[in-house]
Amino acid sequence: MLTGVQVVLLGGDARQLEVIRKLTELDSIVTVAGFEQLHTPLDGAIRAEMSDDLFRGADALILPAVGTDDEGKIIAVFSDRELVLTDEHIGLLPKHCTVYTGMAKPYLRQLCDKHGIGLIELFDRDDVAIYNSIPTAEGAVMMAIQHTDITIHGSICMVLGLGRTGLTLARTLRGLGAKVKVGVRREEHYARADEMGFEPFYVKQLPQVVSNIDLLFNTIPTMIVTAQIIANLPSRAVIIDLASKPGGTDFRFAEKRGIKALLAPGLPGIVAPKTAGRIIADCLSRLIMEDSRLRGNEQ
Ligand code: NAP
């Protein structure tokens, strides 16, 4: 249980509602800001303004998937007010407080660093990334269905990268009856892809293997689907780029060549906010519990 633990949660989207539910269920004292436009009850959470006292009393500060932008602005879909996290706010946090977010921009990292406050980026963690790969793969399939006039069954799909997202996606596509080619750079990934029944190739061979594919899914977060690759794609091919912004595709050249290319960020929060919220909530509650247990032992 998290009895007596003071959690401050700022902004976010529907995913944070699952986080609030879970943390209040565990008996922590959850104070939230950035939910003025949400007219349904918040599972026992206390609504507040961004005041100094809010930060002074926090054992844990929870920010949304993308913590802040480069100026400290926090996305808050249930608020029409601007929520900005400042240097002063972080300076007011007790030294034992930890800041939790999905991923942090340099702005947030620098503030936490400067004030000696712990920062945990949940999406960096394997457990969260692997669970998140499930709604991501489902979202990628949704986009493929929306943007093609063929079934995935019987199509020739290519997945670039056999990491946490790529592996789940390749398996999902194969489950739907696609022929799946997987682009990797490591020999062990080649062997694993082969063992799993995919058609592996090394990404350095990419220009030679793209000439007959229907769908290209990229999970490699670097420029990989270059103009040269796009020039070799059949005109029917659709590119769905899942890698974090700006993606790994030359979108300008794809448009010039008339190839449909879509950057698809944040799919878990779009296609399955409840599941995505539970993934975050389960991990967060474990981490905060562990943190408060360690603090209890130290005192
Ligand atoms: P990951 O587990 O690190 O996988 C990335 C894969 O890319 C690894 O297999 C890695 O190979 C490969 N790779 C990296 N650089 C490469 C290069 N230069 N050449 C060849 N292969 C390279 O990451 P992930 O969790 O799957 O996430 C992948 C991307 O998707 C990230 O940008 C992430 O932010 C994004 N993402 C997007 C969504 C969405 O909704 N669109 C959801 C979740 C994640 P090695 O193992 O050899 O390094």
Describe this structure in words.
By secondary structure, the protein is of the alpha/beta class. It has two domains: 6-122 and 272-298, 3-Layer(aba) Sandwich (Rossmann fold); 128-265, 3-Layer(aba) Sandwich (Rossmann fold), CATH 3.40.50. The protein has twelve helices and 14 strands. It has helices at 14-25, 52-56, 87-92, 106-115, 126-147, 164-175, 187-195, 206-209, 227-232, 251-257, 267-271, 273-298, and strands at residues 6-10, 29-33, 46-47, 60-62, 73-74, 83-84, 98-101, 118-121, 156-160, 179-184, 199-202, 215-218, 238-241, 260-263. The strands form three sheets. The chain has a six-stranded parallel β-sheet with strand order 3-2-1-4-7-8, sandwiched between helices. The chain has a six-stranded parallel β-sheet with strand order 11-10-9-12-13-14. α1 packs across α12 (273-298) and α5 runs antiparallel to α12. The mean pLDDT is 95. Bound molecules: NADP nicotinamide-adenine-dinucleotide phosphate (NAP). The site of NADP nicotinamide-adenine-dinucleotide phosphate has 24 residues, from α5, α6 and α11. NADP nicotinamide-adenine-dinucleotide phosphate is lined by residues 129, 132, 136, 161-166, 185-186, 203, 219-222, 242-244, 264-268.
